Structures
1.
Amino acid sequence: MKKIDLNNIKNIINHLGKKIGLLLIFLINVFIFALLFVIRYKNQSYAISINNLNNFSNILNLIHFFIITILIIICFIRKNYISIGNITFLFFLMLTVILLVITTVVFPGFYKDTVQITIICLLLLSITYIFLLLSNKKKKLIKSILITFINILFIILVVIVYVFSYYPSNYEVINGDVTYDAAVIFGAAVWHGNRPSPVLRERILKALSLYQNNKIKYFVVTGSNAPGELSESEVSKTFLINKNVDKSFIIAESNTRSTSAQVIFVRDSIYNKRNFKNLIIVSDNFHLRRITEMFKFNGITPIGVSSDSPLMNNNLVFYSLRESIGVILFWYFGV
């Protein structure tokens, strides 16, 4: 009777456990990015079709997916150099990501931005951790967290540059011969006494100057209200009427509470229903990049015109950070 080699059995079980673990990680990875794909279109209330797949959000997520997939395949090939403990940690890391993604669907209002930012950070952490696994570095988790933090700061810096590199078409619109269907004024804060805040006022004045120079036919004003005050769109409409604009040339909606919702309104009620094709979007320069990204995702290419709203240095830092994070969240979640 042959003696059973326990070490050989342990090696087989360990070898099989690594294969199963890496396979499960791969399947979770597929499910995460498939779910993110669906969530982006759901948040934009946009039907998925072959004609709208070629946008930056989908390309970026596909690149992210393939990076993780290729790293998992390399881990599978070199599994003898990776411990079962490392694979177990990676499995629970990816499992945490998918649970958080599901949370954003089941509880859409539950600290949504915080959860979404956490998901992106964990996805970046997973890439860093696998890289360190393959390089056989010590203290992998601590180094992964540190490197991920540095990478996040770098990504935000790059996106900030991208946001502020947007070149508005003010000169081309004013000096061109085209008359546009409408100027869409994106809502901003309303001050005490139902007065437009300086930011909103400058947006209205910019659209008004286009109207007075026969560059637009209609105004589209957007934005809902806080308790006890008029909506942003109503304040904008009143301001324009007081500047001798006939109310029949003002299209107002007062239900949207976010830039994303306002883009969807313009797409459905202005671009499609009214058949307005050449649109101008009016907002602050730092805001135009994110709006343009949203419109492009929805198959619309508007002309961006920036208001003349000055930004103080302290506000500039805040808006830079907010808009860059907003762009990243849109790329991944369509919000």
2.
Amino acid sequence: MSVVALVLAAGRARRFGFDKRQARLPDGRSLLQAVLQTQLQACDAVIALLRPDDDWGQALCADLGVEVRLVPQADEGMGRTLATGLSALLADEASGVGPPRFEAALVVLADMPAVQVGTVQALIHAFQRHGLPACPWHGGRAGHPRLLPRDRWPDLLDLSGDEGARHRLDWSRACRVEVPDAGVLIDVDTPADLDG
């Protein structure tokens, strides 16, 4: 049951002051590099969803061997970015070209570099056992990334704005995966967030 990571990296990060994906973590990697490398270690494939004019992101993905899908309507919000990625996966399958059929997509936010490889693996294993959407929990709170089985994708193809899968699926029925990883709750919105 193969799983593809869809990394939502087409936002403008206006609150950060500059392209936060390029901000450096204490280990010297860029924020986006750390996110992509985590997914490369755990998933069968990784696709970064980027803006068409994102030369820096495309160059980074080329260096890491990550496939890129461009999102011309990225300004419509994260929901549109996710819908574009899922639509592309289904179109590839229908055309008979491109990657193999994926049984699930892991929806990954590009501003959460602290998520651990073991957490991603735990979500995938939960899906392989139960066939349900999967969500990480830490300290009594739901976090990200979230895993979407293929049979749920058609419900999300018309997303727009900042409406994401959390508004369309009943996550109370998802597989709740308890993890010792506080990174599932930590997103980077300002430069101060890089310091912990």
